[in-house]
Structure formats: C-alpha cells, structure tokens
Specification:
The protein has 768 residues and is α+β, with helices and mostly antiparallel strands. 29% of the residues lie in helices and 23% in strands. It has 20 helices and 28 strands. The chain has a seven-stranded mixed sheet. Strands 7-15-14-13-8 form a five-stranded mixed sheet, sandwiched between helices. Helix 18 packs across helix 19. The relative contact order is 0.12.
C-alpha cells in the first residue's frame, strides 16, 4: 500500500502550514473580542503592600482590571496540580495556594499582579503604566539545595524549610547492602541544568462565554484539552465540565510547556464571564521566558555498586529538584514517578533506590520538558556507567555489554516494578557501534589533531517509557459521499498525527488516503482523550483506531451483504473492496456508504461509523543507543558535534520519514541542553539573566551534522496490537549523555556539568 503502515508518506499537514492556511490561536478574531494583558511583578520576592488600579480602570479602551483578591472574592479556587505525592513518612506533599494573580506576596519575577482587559492589546498594554504597586522586597533563594538549608528565606508558610516533598521509591536496605559489599562503588554528583521551553508558537488562550447557557468555550495553544477541562471546570470554577468546551486547533509546538494549567487560562475565562464578551490573551517571547514552565533543574548524587566481576548490584540516587516558586500542574511527578519509571535503564540491576527532595525557590515553576524525567534518569545512569568504566580501567562498551538485560530474561521485572516486555539491547548497541564506524575512530582522531582539534566520542544507551493516562479514544465516521472523518482524543503539536493516523485507517480499511479528514483536540468531538505526552499517542490512539476500524468493517460487511445479496459472514474486505468469498462479485466503499445513508433507513440505523476506547496492557519501553563524536577547538573552547549515530527500537514503524524527523528534533534538543541552553538567575535578586535569545543560546541548523538514524524492529512490544513503542522523546533522552561523554572523552575529564559552554571547555582544556 502506497500510503499504508511502514511507508514514508510525506506529511499532509505541511501543505497547510507552509501556505499560511494553519489555524492558530492568534488567527482567531471573534466579533467584539477584548484583549488581556498581565501586569507582572518586577521583583522576585516581596510583600505586596498595596496595588492601585484606579487610573488603569479609567484609561481609554479599558473594560476591566482584576487584582489577586478579586479571585477568592468571586468564589474561585487556586490553580490545582494534577498529581499528589506522599512523603516518605506517609504525609502529603505541601501544596501552597497558587492564585492566578498574587495576593499579598509575589514569589518570582514576572508573577502576575493585575490583569487588564481592553478593547485592544495596545490599550491594555498602555494602561499597565498606570498601575501602582508598592513592593516591600524580601530576601531570595534560587538554588534548590540552598533553599532547603538553614536560614534560607521562606517562600510559603505551608512548606516548612521550603520543602514541597521528600519522596522515595524502591527498597533502601538492599541497595545499602549492595554498596557496603561492593568490590567497587562509582559515585558522581551532577547537575541537570534548567531549560527554558521555547516552542515556535507562544502560549495563548481565548474564551467565549454564553450567558444564556452558562457555557464556556476555551481555545488555546495547549496540549491536553480534556485535562484542561477537568481541572479548570471542577477545581477552579466549580462548574459541570459539560459547561466547558476546550478546543485546540493547530498548535505550534509544545514540548510539555503547554501541558500545564497556567494563570492566564483561568483569567480569560473569568473575564469572559464577567464582561460577557470574548477575551483573548497571547504571550510574547519575553513574557514566555518569565512565565512558561521551565524544565529540568536537578542536582543529583548517584552511586553505582559493582561486584568483582564488574556486574551492577545496586543503584542509589539522591536528587534535589528545584520546583520554582509554586507547584506546576505536572511539576511534582517529573523528578519522582516519571524518572523512576525508567531508572535502571536497560541494565540488569537487582536493587535500585531513589529519593527526591523538592524545593521551592524564587524562580519560575518547573514542569515537564520533552522527555519529562526520562532524560534525567538516562543522563545520571549513563554518566555514572562511564565513571565506573574509567575507575576500573575497562572499556565502557564491554561494561555495558556485561550488564545489559539478556534476551532470555525478558520479560524483565525491574527493581522499581516496571515490566520491560521486549528489546534486543546488546544487538542494538552492536548495530550502533557498526553504523558509527567505531573502529575507525582513532584515524579520525588523528586527522582532527592534525588540524589542531581535539576529538572525542561518547555512547549512551537509553530506555524510555510510554507514560500518561493508559486509555485513549478514536472514532471513524463515513459521509454519504464516501469521505471519512477520523476523530481522536489525543493531539498533535507537530508530531504528524494527521498523516500517520490516516495511514493506519488506510491500511485497515483500504479507503482513499486523501479522503480521510482529521479531527483532534476538541472536547466536543470525542467523549474522552488524554492528549499527548510520554510518547503515548501511537501506542494508544493508534490501537483505538484499529478497534474503531474493526467496528466499521463489521457494519460495512452487513451493508455489503445487502447489496450483494449475501450473508455478512460470506463477505470479506480485500484491497479496499467487499467481495463475496469465492466469487468476483464486489462493491466498494462508495456504494456501501451510499447504502448506509439510504433514505429508507431508520434514523438509528442510518450512517456508518465505529468507535473504540483502548486501554493499554502496559507501558511500552522504546530504547536505543546513540553515539556522538565531537571536535573541540582548544583555543576557543568551541564544540562541534561532527558525527552522530542513532539506532532506536520503536517497535513497528508506521512512517519512517516522520520518525526520523522526531528523532532528529529530539537530538537537537538534547544537544541544546548539553552545549548551549542554560537558564540563569541572579543569585542576589532572583532576576532572570538569560531572558532573551541574546542571552539564552538556542541550537541552530549548523550545530548538528547530518546524522545516521537507523531503526531496530526486531523486538515489537506486545503492549499494543501494532507492536509500536513510541518515538517522540528518544533523541532528547540519549543526546545529552552521549555528547557530554564525548566531550569528557576528548578532554580526558571525569565529568563536566552541562551546559558545556566555550568558557568552561576552554578552562578544562587547560586543566583549570
């Protein structure tokens, strides 16, 4: 099949995007739309003594100005979080209230203190100069370890010592025993640096309110419409979720940063109801730096126990996670459950224990960033494996080979409980080594040296997990003319669902690929949906599409039987046509669809559709091996990634062209964190120093060479009917450790923390 599963079909959505026909939030301009603008605190920690908005309310074009106290006065609740954790002693984590606008105190620079709604964005922005706020500045803390220390300024009365939680997973005693009895313990302290999430399209929200029905319609640049509906309706506004429709049209990238309930989503809803008019807010890039949930920011101590035969016997991980000024929607789960979901990787480690302390600081709240916990787990593990190899004087590949999960041990129950059902970990690593021409490295190193460059190489094995809510929904509807509409509860923010999901329908039904329409991200289109994230969409939505297809086929066979005067049991679907088995009598989808809509049919029997809700049997575990080679200019400290090889096990591949793009994008983001990106706060004022692209370095096309990307399809998972595992985050997970290890290899260093800036590398090259 030209457009079926396994074919490199060109993305159909790109025609719309490249010709200016995309439907993004800022394209929406309903009649009478008002525009919101948030007045933000210029200080990072202060008592808000007073705020005077009288002059702003009287400014030309201004319809309303809201301040923090207006929120509880209206009977509304603080912004909720999605997942609750328990401390090691069984008590709940601390959840201080996060109001959409500050009440009495601001805790990070850029926190909203007023929301101005006016007839134009310019009018709203102009009125900000008329808001007078009196701040009594307080001491600040930006570092998570310092925040938990004695004498640190306290952010919340509800969180003693700035501690949000102290969480653990695994059995501590066996790991401590393994460490005590180990022939060698490899130990490393490392930093997983903070990242600003920078999707191409900034965040935004638009709300319409129908006073007659009391119903809201919220659209926005968001990632998970059903989660937004539940949290906003039930936990903030106290309304029936049926009264809130949430829809996202085209969304220009998310990477986790649009999977969070943010103050502005609630503010536009409140203002739309209060003013009985549509209200729209769109962030600009500078505002995004100050307010979008940021990623990573963890400090970790990791210890790996090895016996005399160099086998891993125990892994102990202690992390301090910087949560920012408040708990964000998914913030607590990223350094805890999400990281633990793959801790231990593809290695056979009998005992693993992890504990995490979450700290409040005067910084932007942290949340999911592409990979969300899995990159952190891979980075700490792959770096300590390299340390262990260096300590023991053994080849790191052979050390990995000795400890990777053997095929005969699959399915493998990991120490922390997750079940890895499939994988060819050693075979895959060997393929990556061959593809990278590992044996030819010394010759390339000599060539680099002849040009005054230092060359190094690094390898990283990774294990990912398809996380998120375990169920998904899909529906297929035929029109009378034979057109097909596929509706799904998951969502694409650039992952090409419009193409790959249509390939599944085409493969299963044999209908014309170009007649398949796609509908997503609308709480009015499907009864449930859980968005994307955790590389879950193909495993879950793809399986639901198969189920919906089966139901359509069953109904269509009965219709074809009527047309062919045969029993439905004698009808088969082959090559896009329904045939009477053993004959040449057949009808196509057009005739079947026409019959389904025939005038004589009752309303209940009219039409042709099928739907399915799929619940996965278990998490799938994509995995792979990435190898990076770098060249370093010792005179400037500049790093060039000159060669990159990736071999990934994503199970069955639906569209190799799309998957290559996903891997490439992830590699670039992994490289960005390793070499370029770093969020910097002034430690004295907690002001964001890296607040623009002049100060925050983003990767560009010339930072990465052409890469070799290969797929290992010999170990499909049994957790989904198609055997797919998910591919969305692989490059981000493996990219950083591979590149950091390559730089350490080049410089002969034990470890160097990200980001590997020229100044840091230049000093390291000189032994400073």
């Amino acid at each position: 099949m030209k457009f079926g599963i396994g074919q490199a079909v060109t993305r159909v959505e790109d025609r719309r995007f490249t010709t200016g026909l995309g439907n993004y939030l800022d394209d929406a301009a309903p009649e009478g739309c008002l525009h919101g603008f948030v007045v933000r605190a210029p200080v990072a920690h202060a008592r808000l003594r007073s705020i005077d908005v009288g002059a702003a309310r009287a400014a030309p074009g201004v319809r309303a100005v809201y301040v923090g106290q207006d929120w509880p006065d209206a009977g509304l609740k603080p912004i909720p979080i999605r997942a609750a954790l328990e401390n090691v002693d069984g008590t709940p984590l601390a959840v201080p209230p996060r109001w959409p606008l500050a009440i009495g105190r601001v805790r990070h620079a850029g926190e909203g203190v007023a929301f101005i709604v006016a007839e134009s964005r310019r009018a709203a922005e102009d009125a900000t100069d008329l808001v007078e706020a009196d701040y009594d500045e307080l001491d600040v803390v930006t570092d998570s370890v310092a925040a938990l220390g004695d004498g640190a300024p306290l952010l919340h009365e509800e969180a003693r010592g700035n501690r949000a939680f102290h969480w653990s997973k695994g059995e501590r005693a066996p790991v401590e025993k393994a460490l005590a009895e180990a022939a060698h313990v490899a130990e490393l302290r490392l930093v997983n640096n903070r990242i600003v999430i920078n999707p191409m399209e900034p965040r935004g929200a638009l709300c319409l309110y129908d006073a007659d029905s009391g119903a809201f319609t919220l659209s926005g640049s968001i990632q998970n419409v059903f989660m937004f509906r539940t949290l906003l309706a039930e936990q903030i506004f106290g309304i029936d979720p049926a009264k809130l429709r949430v829809v996202a049209y085209d969304v220009g990238g998310g990477f986790g940063g649009k999977n969070q309930i943010q103050p502005e989503h609630a503010l536009v809803m409140h203002a739309a109801r209060d003013l009985a008019a549509p209200v729209k807010w769109v962030s600009d890039r500078a505002e995004g730096f100050l307010t979008d949930g940021q990623g990573r920011d963890q400090q970790t101590r990791v210890r790996l126990a090895l016996d005399k035969d160099h086998r891993f016997t125990g892994l102990y991980v202690e992390t301090t996670a910087n949560l920012g000024a408040y708990l964000s929607t998914n913030g607590p789960v990223v350094p805890t459950g999400a990281t633990a979901s793959v801790l231990g990787g593809a290695y056979d480690i009998p005992s693993v224990y992890t504990e995490v302390r979450g700290a409040f600081t005067n910084t932007v709240p942290t949340d999911a960033y592409r990979g969300a916990g899995r990159p952190e787990a891979c980075y700490l593990l792959e770096r300590v494996v390299e340390i262990a190899a260096a300590d023991l004087g053994v080849d790191s590949i052979e050390l990995r080979r000795r400890n990777l999960i053997r095929p005969e041990k699959l399915p493998y129950r990991a120490s922390l409980g997750h079940l890895i059902d499939s994988g060819g970990f050693e075979d895959l690593m060997d393929r990556a080594i061959a593809n990278a021409d590992w044996d030819g490295f010394e010759a390339r190193k000599a060539q680099s040296a002849a040009r005054g460059r230092i060359r190094g190489r690094g390898l990283a094995c990774y294990l990912e997990a398809t996380l998120g809510v375990p169920n998904e929904y899909a529906r297929i509807d035929f029109d009378a003319d034979g057109g097909v509409t596929l509706s799904v509860g998951t969502q694409s923010n650039g992952q090409s669902h419009e193409t790959t999901f249509a390939q599944i329908v085409h493969e299963k039904l044999g209908v014309d690929f170009h007649r398949i329409r796609f509908r997503q991200s609308d709480t009015a289109a499907t009864p449930l949906g859980n968005g994307h994230g955790g590389s879950r969409s193909l495993q879950l939505a793809g399986s639901a599409i198969l189920g919906a297809s089966d139901k359509v086929i069953e109904k269509a066979k009965a219709l074809a039987g009527e047309l062919l005067e045969a029993a439905a049991a004698d009808i088969e679907l082959r090559d896009g046509a329904f045939r009477v088995v053993g004959t040449d009598r057949s009808v196509g989808w057009d005739a079947v669809a026409e019959a389904a809509f025939a005038a004589g049919r009752s309303e209940s029997d009219r039409g042709l559709s099928g739907d399915d809700e799929y619940t996965r049997a278990g998490n799938a575990y994509p995995n792979g091996c990435h190898i990076a080679e770098v060249e370093i200019d010792p005179e400037t400290g500049l790093i060039d990634v000159v060669d990159y090889t990736a071999v990934d096990d994503f199970g069955r591949i639906v569209n190799p062209l799309v998957v290559r793009g996903q891997v490439m994008g992830g590699i670039v983001q992994g490289l960005g964190q390793a070499v370029l990106e770093h969020t910097v706060y002034d430690t004295e004022t907690a002001q964001l120093v890296s607040g623009t692209f002049m100060d925050y370095a983003m990767p560009r096309a010339d930072h990465l060479p052409a890469t070799r990307i290969d797929f290992y399809e010999d170990a499909p998972t049994e957790t989904s009917p198609m055997g797919v595992k998910g591919c969305g985050e692989a490059g981000t997970i493996a990219g950083s450790p591979a590149i950091v290890s390559a730089v350490c290899n080049a410089l002969g260093l034990r470890h160097i923390d990200m980001p590997l800036t020229p100044e840091k590398v230049w000093a390291a090259a000189r032994g400073r």
